[in-house]
Amino acid sequence: MFLFRVFAFVLIPCVAFGQSILDFYPLNSASTVFSPTTDIAPIGVVASQRREVSEKHSKQVSSRKVDSIITKFGNPNEALAVEGQDKAPLPFKGMLAALEAGQEDLARAYAKQYVRYISALKTKTDTAIKFIEAAEAEEKIAALPPKPPGVEDEE
């Protein structure tokens, strides 16, 4: 029954008059056992009052928020250099710095160094995995998942 009352007395008039549900009743009004009636606000009056207060407040808050965002993340209208992350390998960061400076030959040289770095990393990782597999066999535990049938080691 309560839902029907809400629907019939709030939702239908709001939809019919194109008004927000929050604007139908005046601010801080409610029907309770202590107040037998609730005044219904004239259509549009409460909405315009709320908009005026909200706009003034939002302009103040908005300018403070914008300033703090710009302070934290920088001015969005300025050009931003594309740099490698702090933990990125040096050749990768060097390649990006060279590209940013317009030095394509230097960037190619760093790219070649980066490829050599990645190759060495893969070799070292493969070796480490072999040691792990040998240790698993000695300890009779399987830390790595078993290989599917028919898959051979790449050697």
Strand content: under 5%
Largest sheet composition: none
Measured as a percent range, the helix fraction is 55-70%
What string, H for helix and E for strand, traces the elements in order?
HHHH
The gyration radius over C-alpha positions equals 34 Å
Count, helices: 4
- Low-confidence segments, given as residue ranges, are none
The figure for the number of domains is 2
Apparent shape: flat
The structure class reads mainly alpha
**Strands, total number:** 0
Q: How would you name the oligomeric state of the polypeptide chains in this document?
A: single chain
Short description:
This protein has helices at residues 2-17, 45-73, 90-100, 104-139. It is mainly alpha-helical and 155 residues long. It has two domains: 12-73, no CATH class; 90-139.
Description of the molecule:
With 155 residues, the chain is mainly α. It has two domains: 12-73, no CATH class; 90-139. α3 runs antiparallel to α4 (104-139). It has four helices and no strands.
